[in-house]
UniProtKB/TrEMBL annotation:
Signal peptide: none annotated. This is Trafficking protein particle complex subunit 8. It comes from Thlaspi arvense. InterPro entries: Ig_TPPC8_1st, Ig_TPPC8_2nd, Ig_TPPC8_C, TRAPP_III_complex_Trs85. Pfam families: Ig_TPPC8_1st, Ig_TPPC8_2nd, Ig_TPPC8_C, TRAPPC-Trs85. GO terms for cellular component: TRAPPIII protein complex.
Length: 1291
């Protein structure tokens, strides 16, 4: 904290609270000094401030002190009056306007940074003109009748040596008509110090007359009171002063003309004159005045007795009527004398005496305030007397560096009292506030000083603007700095400046506020600052700076739609006024999403569509591993080959081909709520032609002829027009908040190094937006097989352009986007090579062989679909061979493409499962004698299919308990579609082993002809195993093809069935077998079915525009299900005639047992000779052990070997007396049976009497060699089937 005397307030008090000298001069005196571009007072002013006058002074006591600093204020008598308020306002406004004009050139510079502001000293933070403004504001209260420091201390009478009768002129000058009202009205003592000065113009007057006049003056007015000033010693009047002392006092005139007739000796003489006048006349006079007043006041007012007397006297004044005119206190009153004593002591720097005087007079004013009730002006005048004393007391406390608390109390009390006066006290409160704020700033209380500035803002907008700005600088000087308050008060100040048409100052304050808000998240106030400062720059004609600031508000999506329209409208209006296009780097309209940046280009990998280029590289690499050849040095990829062939400095570069586009996908977003049109969007690129080391890579010469030096081309234009590359241009419109992915392309036409620098676009034809890519890494969709070594963002957009190569183009004709599950389609793959260089060795790999199967040859292109899939006359069951090895399809070796020739190849498509399916095709081809860098290329094709649900089928197969080679098949069909109808056409078993037949008429299977949406259906069929038993040769019987297919429709009886043993149905079925259960492929005892259907009706034809002609549904690895692993039958006679009188009856039987599981089974037969209930004789009704099936449509069919046993009733009671029979063969035997095999066991019974016998008194005990799964048993017992034998007595 600086000393009070050296603070800004101390300096201000030294200048403003200092003795006033009244000047009276003749017109000829003024004419003498006009030659220097100055008035008389202006000439003397620079020499009235004494920094080291060193005058001894003794005031109240006997102790002397030396006065170091001293200032005189010189005023013409005509100027010693209270200023006119309106004139003062105009002068203040003019001062502010001039300051704004001086700062105009600085407005073009960049706004100050907040770090720089904080690092600057206090003197450099606030504008320098604030001090001049504050002084002028304080001077609006000059020469009030109650403040003695504004009353003239002395009068300087000045007469020219050229005046006629100079002595009389001196007398006439001090005429009452020319004196100020302060002297005439009695507010001050007219008996003041007079000093007489004779001015001699060395250019005009003669020294003889001047000497004579000076002698007369001294004889008349006294020798010490007269003085001579010789001036204008320069005859030519063209002297230029190095340090012109008048430049800071008179800025409206060129400094070269100020004092042009005054020599150095003249200036020294003026300086000595004023030094002598102050030290020998003014200071002694004031010193003497203070001593006299102090003695007088001490005798009448000081001491307890005098204080009581004064109090009693003031009480008695209540009865005396007061005058309502004139001042309350005249210069001769005791109160005025005390005030003069205090003010004189203050000006002579005796602050102790000043304080004691102010305390004394303050008591009198308080008493008067309590006992007197004046009206109107008298009240205000009285309060001003009192408050002014409080104000001076506070200043005295401050300047004497005494009680800080007392100083602030006095200033607060004075300020509050002024504010209570309303408008009449506003000027006084403003002066008090300015002094108070400076006092707080001197003590580093900047926050409190800011609040004082805010309190004195008042209603005048211009005055408020200056005070608010001064308050803002106080906030930035606090520790720590209060930046948000600093910026907020600057904005308030700028708005007030603009309301007063002080646009330069409004811009200046807003520029400073930008430093606060540009790095904050306060978006709305930031937009307010940038938008208005842009408007104001346009007002003053700085349109380019206006555009730069308005650009900051374009990304204002958080604002209302109306606000955004205002921003955009004013922005384009300002741009239009400039009459030129503005290129803006980093334009935020539209906003570019750099994370969406994708670079798509073709090197050895080419793409058939945009969708193919967006597929992850790992998917393509997994497909291409089997078709891309490896080098002799072991398995390596194309990147390793490239690294061996390219020069070292190009090894990490991306490679593209001349004539082929490099595509860049970039997302543009409209941050506004209003629609925005974006035009002429293109890339910014550079292409450097090849250097010599790169030419050596290819043995053939480059197609372009280059000079010895390389050159760089940069597309600063709008689009192409450069021979080295061609750019695409895109126009689009973004609605409010819309995002749009835009594809931009650059096509190099010659070899070299291509760099994608950025992107450019236009708004409204006048704003060119530019965005550079250097700082953002790009996602290149051709990432190599192995990771590169730390690619820089620039390298990701840098390409090595090699010469033109053949490029294969492919398309898939007739491919629908939406299909039904099982839909079989015939497609055509068309390949073209427009280059004159041939390609050969074509190979293709498909990601989903389950969905796609290539045709066998080009001749299939002429076939009719689907008739080509139906059976022909005399067709043999032979599977066609294909050209595929594993999942790679090799085109014929003799195929070569070049020029205008195209290749069309049949492709079979089957939608295997519902859902969204992604199909990937990779076509490999080789090139000859074209490039040593690239020997082969691949064409990548990608398609997305939407597969809708159709029919879902499932099969249940159960064995016949009596007919071992026959099985019942239950087929369950559910239409999973939500709206489509289907017709079932054909059911086929796959292979030659299983024959199939109907169990019910076709018309009864589906009477409605179509399976409705959501409908379920169950139907039954019989299949027969044509494989012979183990006892015969193990081979399959030859079945005619008609026995493996069943027609499921009645209309079109002549329509042929579909051939399932040849491609493509056979190929797709093999894929289905591997997909539905690879582990069961080794089990030959399963049944595969193929159901053929077609779409009968679609409720939404637009979903599937090309209706399917055939749908195939494949069910593979269907097992034969049973509750136990055995099925058997007991064969023998039904009726026997025997003569029991001769012998018992022996009957031979045969049991056939089949192992229906895939495990080795061991079977033992356990017979029982006694039945608890014997069968009664009854007529035979045929073979009762035959198998009969009763379908259950509500649940899955389960057939067991004891079906008939559960249906047998109790035999008649008449049979209970029949004699028993016995099993006369082996009572128990164990037989091993191989999986899915049959064996025969001979049996025999002995019957002792005629009757009907139930031969079910046996059990089959079975045991498996190992567990099939956790849920099946390892052993078990089966009860014998009922078998009735009728034995009759022969005649």
């Amino acid at each position: 904290m600086v000393e009070p005397v050296n603070s800004s307030l101390g300096k201000m008090l030294l200048e403003e609270v200092s003795p006033v000298v009244m000047v009276l001069c003749t017109p000829l005196v003024e004419e003498t000094f006009v030659k220097n571009g100055l008035s008389f007072v202006e000439t003397l002013k620079p020499f009235c401030n004494f920094s080291n006058i060193d005058v001894p002074v003794r005031t109240s006591g006997d102790q002397l002190y030396r006065l170091k600093k001293f200032t005189l204020r010189l005023f013409y008598a005509s100027d010693i009056r209270q200023p006119n308020i309106q004139v003062a306002k105009q002068r203040l406004e003019h001062l502010i306007t001039q300051a704004g004009e001086k700062d105009f050139q600085d407005l073009e510079s960049d706004p100050p940074q907040i770090a720089d502001i904080l690092s600057n000293p206090e003197s450099e933070i606030a504008p320098t003109w604030f001090q001049h403004y504050n002084k002028e504001l304080i001077r609006t209260l000059s020469f009030s009748d109650h403040e003695a420091f504004d009353h003239p201390v002395a009068c300087l009478l000045v007469v020219s040596s050229k005046d006629e009768e100079p002595i009389n002129k001196f007398v006439d000058l001090f005429n009452t008509n020319r004196l100020p009202s302060l002297l005439n009205d009695g507010a001050m003592d007219p008996k003041i110090l007079k000093h007489y000065l004779l001015v001699h113009d060395n250019q005009d007057a003669t020294t003889e007359r001047t000497s004579k006049v000076l002698s007369e003056m001294r004889s008349t007015f006294g020798n010490n009171e007269c003085n001579l000033l010789c001036t204008n010693s320069s005859k030519e009047g063209n002297i230029e002063h190095q340090a012109n002392p008048w430049a800071s006092f008179k800025s409206d005139v060129s400094a070269d003309k100020l004092g042009c007739a005054l020599t150095g000796d003249d200036i020294v003489e003026i300086k000595d004159l004023m030094q002598e006048f102050a030290s020998r006349h003014v200071i002694p006079y004031m010193e003497q005045k203070v001593r006299e007043l102090n003695q007088q006041i001490s005798a009448t007012r000081k001491g307890l007795r005098n204080q009581i007397k004064n109090l009693w006297w003031r009480k008695g004044k209540d009865d005396v009527p007061d005058s309502t005119k004139g001042s309350m206190y005249t210069f001769s009153s005791t109160e005025s004398q005390i005030r003069i004593l205090g003010d004189y002591a203050f000006m002579l720097h005796d602050y102790e005496l000043a304080l004691s005087s102010y305390r004394l007079i303050s008591t009198d004013y308080k008493l008067d305030k309590a006992w007197k009730h004046y009206a109107g002006v008298q009240v205000a005048s009285h309060l001003c007397n009192y408050v002014s004393v409080e104000e001076m007391m506070g200043l005295a406390y401050f300047i004497s560096d005494q009680s800080k608390k007392e100083a602030e109390y006095c200033m607060e009390n004075a300020f509050s009292t002024y504010m209570k006066l309303g408008k009449s006290g506003f000027q006084n409160s403003t002066r008090c506030g300015l002094w108070w704020a400076e006092m707080l700033k001197a003590r580093d209380q900047y926050k409190e000083a800011a609040s004082v500035y805010f309190r004195i803002c008042g209603e005048e907008p211009l005055h408020a603007a200056v005070m608010l700005e001064q308050a803002s600088y106080c906030f930035v000087l606090t520790k720590p700095a209060m930046l948000h308050k600093y910026g907020f008060h600057l904005v308030l100040s700028g708005d007030h400046y603009k309301n007063c048409d002080q646009v330069n100052h409004a811009i200046r304050t807003y520029r400073s506020a930008i430093s606060v808000y540009k790095s904050t998240t306060w978006s709305h106030i930031k937009d307010h600052v940038y938008f208005h400062i842009g408007q104001w720059y346009a007002i003053v004609g700085m349109h380019e700076v206006a555009v730069r600031n308005m650009l900051k508000v374009l990304d204002c999506g958080y604002q209302s739609k109306a606000t955004q329209e205002i921003f955009l409208r004013d922005f384009f209006n300002i741009v239009k006024k400039t009459g030129m296009k503005h290129e803006v780097v980093g334009l935020q309209l539209p906003v570019i999403n750099m994370s969406s940046l994708q670079v798509i280009y073709d090197d050895h990998r080419t793409y058939a569509s945009q969708a193919s280029a967006l597929v992850e590289e790992s998917i393509w690499q997994s497909l291409e591993d089997d078709i891309i050849p490896s080098l002799n040095s072991g398995k390596s990829n194309w990147l390793e080959l490239q690294s061996k062939l390219l020069p070292k400095k190009y090894k990490e570069s991306n490679v593209c081909v001349a004539g082929e586009s490099v595509k860049v996908d970039l997302e543009f977003r409209n941050p506004l709520l209003i629609s925005t049109s974006v035009t002429s969007v293109s890339l910014i690129c550079e292409l450097t032609p090849n250097s010599d080391d790169l030419k050596l890579v290819d043995k053939e010469p480059s197609s372009s002829s280059l000079g010895p030096e390389s050159s760089t081309e940069h597309n600063q234009g709008t689009t192409s027009g450069f021979s080295s590359f061609t750019l695409s241009e895109v126009d689009f419109t973004l609605s409010g908040g819309e995002k749009k992915l835009v594809r931009l392309t650059v096509t190099p036409s010659e070899e070299g190094i291509l760099k994608i620098v950025g992107v450019r676009w236009e708004l409204s034809g006048s704003i060119v937006g530019v965005h550079h890519f250097q700082s953002v890494p790009a996602k290149a969709k051709t990432a190599k097989g192995r990771k590169k070594n730390k690619l820089t963002p620039t390298d990701a957009l840098k390409f090595l352009v090699i010469k033109s190569l053949p490029r294969l183009e492919g398309s898939m004709d007739h491919l629908p986007e939406t299909l039904h599950a099982g839909d079989l389609r015939y497609l055509v793959l068309e390949l073209k090579n427009k280059s004159d260089s041939p390609i050969k060795n074509l190979k293709m790999k498909i990601s989903h062989p389950r969905f796609v199967s290539p045709g066998n040859n080009e001749e299939e292109l002429t076939t009719e679909f689907p008739d080509c899939l139906k059976k022909g006359d005399g067709q043999t069951i032979v599977q066609h061979e294909t050209n595929r090895t594993s999942s790679v399809f090799a085109f014929p070796k003799d195929i070569s493409l070049q020029g205008d020739r195209s290749l069309k190849w049949p492709i079979w498509l089957r939608a295997a499962i519902p859902g969204t399916i992604s199909l990937y095709f990779t076509i490999y081809y080789e090139m000859e004698n074209v490039s040593s860098i690239m020997k082969y290329r691949t064409l990548r094709m990608h398609y997305n299919l939407q597969v809708l649900p159709s029919l879902e089928i499932s099969f249940g197969i159960t064995p016949s308990p009596s007919r071992l080679q026959e099985f019942l098949v239950r087929m369950d069909i559910v239409n999973r579609s939500k709206s489509d109808y289907f017709q079932i056409r054909q059911l086929s078993t796959v292979g030659c082993r299983w024959g199939i037949s109907l169990l019910q008429p076709v018309d009864t299977i589906l009477p409605s002809k179509s399976l409705l949406a959501g409908q379920a259906l169950s139907c039954f069929f019989m299949i027969k195993d044509c494989k012979k038993s183990e006892t015969e040769e193990d081979k399959t019987m030859s079945l005619p093809p008609s026995q493996t297919d069943v027609k499921l429709f009645t209309q079109d009886d002549d329509e042929k069935l579909f051939d399932i043993v040849n491609s493509p149905l056979a190929s797709f079925h093999e894929s289905e077998r591997s997909c539905q259960g690879a582990s069961d492929q080794v089990n030959p005892n399963t049944v595969d079915f193929i159901l053929i259907s077609r779409l009968a009706k679609s409720s939404n034809p637009s979903a599937v525009p090309d209706l399917p002609k055939i749908l195939s549904h494949h069910s593979c690895h269907n097992r034969i299900r049973s509750s136990n692993p055995l099925s058997w039958s007991l064969d023998g006679p039904q009726t026997i005639y025997h003569d029991f009188s001769t012998s018992l009856c022996e009957v031979k039987l045969k049991m056939i047992i089949r192992n229906t599981c895939d495990k080795l089974a061991t079977v033992s037969i356990e017979t029982n000779d006694y039945l608890p209930e014997a069968a009664a004789p009854s007529p035979s009704s045929g073979n009762q052990s035959g198998w009969r099936y009763v379908p259950t449509v509500t649940e899955e069919m389960k057939l067991t070997s004891d079906v008939m046993g559960s249906r047998l009733g109790k035999p008649p009671s008449s049979m209970e007396s029949s004699p028993p029979f016995i099993w006369s063969g082996l009572s128990s035997t164990k037989v091993p049976i191989q999986p899915m095999s049959t064996t025969e066991i001979p049996l025999q019974i002995s019957v002792f009497s005629p009757g009907i016998y139930n031969l079910s008194s046996y059990k089959l005990n079975w045991e498996l060699s190992e567990h099939e799964n956790a849920s099946s048993s390892s052993s078990g017992t089966c009860q014998g089937y009922p078998y009735h034998l009728t034995v009759l007595q022969s005649e």
